[in-house]
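Technical appendix A lists one of the benchmark inputs used to test multi-chain prediction within the project. The record comprises two sequence entries:
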Amino acid sequence: MKAKLALCACTAAALAACGPDPINPKRQIGAQPYLPPIHQYLFPPMHVVKNVGWGDAAPKPASGLQVRALARNLKNPRSLYVLPNGDILVAETEGPGEPASRPKQFIFNWVEKKAHSSTKAGNRIVLLRDVDGNGAVDMQTVFLDHLHSPFGMALVGNDFYVANTDAVMRYPYQEGQTQITAPGIKLTDLPGGPIDHHWTKSLTASPDGAKLYAGVGSNSNVGENGMEAEKERAAIWEIDRASGAHRLYATGLRNPNGLTFEPESHALWAVINERDELGPDLVPDYFTSVKDGAFYGWPYSYYGQHLDPRVMPQRPDLTAKAIPPDYSLSSHVAPLGLAFYTGATLPATYRGGAFIAEHGSWNRQELNGYKVVFVPFSSGKPSGMPEDVLTGFIDGDQAHGRPVGLAIDKQGALLVADDVGGTVWRVTATAR
Amino acid sequence: MTDGNPRSTAQIAGHPLHPMLVPIPIACFVGTFLTDLAYWKTANLQWAVMSSWMLTVGLIVALLAVIAGLIDFLGDARIRNLRALWIHAVGNALALILSLFNVFIHSRDGYTSVVPTGLILSTLVVLILLVTGWNGWAMVYRHRVGVSGETP
């Protein structure tokens, strides 16, 4: 009986994980990641960790830092935005749900359900206010309700923008306001359903406030829903704030998030989730400056001009133009949040660099990500290896939480939205 | 109940279940072969999606057919003694194992879910089914397995 069980386990493991040995993720960090040969699985590994919550525990900060929960019991907090008066906005949000068109997707949808928070999000934005400036929330209101899978937020003057999964909406905002009841005005439609595979629409405004930039993820892993479903997706949109007209600023970006202008060079940066099912170490997710008019390969090629054999017909005309991104973060870490450090209260080493939240892998036997890292910058470019800032989201095969959205608050602390943990964490320097 | 024909045990009112079930996986696996061919030639993803559904349905109903067939096999020694049965059983077991692999291959995304491995597997399965189907029909029409009435 035991032997039989062992045999079963071996067969299952062989089916799921039969593949190359994973490489050290460190070999895939930085400008020149090692790219192993493609390995297509018989069945892709799905290593989903059990969500157990935090209890009294907290993530582990790097030395010189301390972490406290700013707000708990939030419903799927996914993105953060800090208003000029210091109020913190938290989008409680979840995807609109994807219809299954192949037998595989029933299995994937079921697995993904386990990986994500089981809490029903309200699809709303919650406001947190620290009245006395002591780093604790004294007031919590529902800032904006009845939204449609909101994610990106941006304020330009008195115009507050929300990127729902299917449209950018504009609302009037006055400083100090704790609730918006005015109906929104649609600035532009964004590609939404009926599939809406990558549904998070990241949003930021240009430094001069004239344009908005929206990240629009692909509608599939690698084009398997047909290229008609990918119209104007896997791209960053540049939206004219006055007219709502848009153009594709950059394309071939499978799932771009964390759109942010780098404070020194004023270049647009983003973190991108690359494709799955080519092996545990393909394709590395990345962090890059996004160049106007550039094509980054998806779905035809990755990391420049490495062809993906799953896409047919190929497009040699497009592939020839594909450029590699700036900085690899290693494979399947799922970066979703980005914040450049513009504050002054964290240790000096963090000034000007980038914090990146890695939501964590699920289709790789050895877990990767599940932490917040810091990439140092100098003259507007990454200047070193990433360092761990916040870890401890994973404990063996259990997840306390998963980091998603990042922001810097008015006092210069790093805020981390943890969707599975239902918490917003606040990272500050340890008291001397 | 004294006729000399080998009797079907998995039957409803004298109608054996196994022959009722087998047309579904046969049609599904032959269909997969055809839609795989169509996808190879056109790269229209609709065909690959159809293949993966037909493979899945074919495998599920084939499992039921295997159960009905096994019950018949265990229920009457005269069935077990047929030479045609062994080719039928071993061949179909092979076809099902290949189809199981094929369902995994078809779970990949895009072109490599079919070309070349998926198409090779669905072709092999159809070739095996030509032999095992012939054998299966021989067991009914020639050896009168599950046929009611008198032996000549």
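The first strand of chain A starts at residue 29 and ends at 30. Chain A has a mean pLDDT of 93. Comparable benchmark entries are summarised in Table A2.
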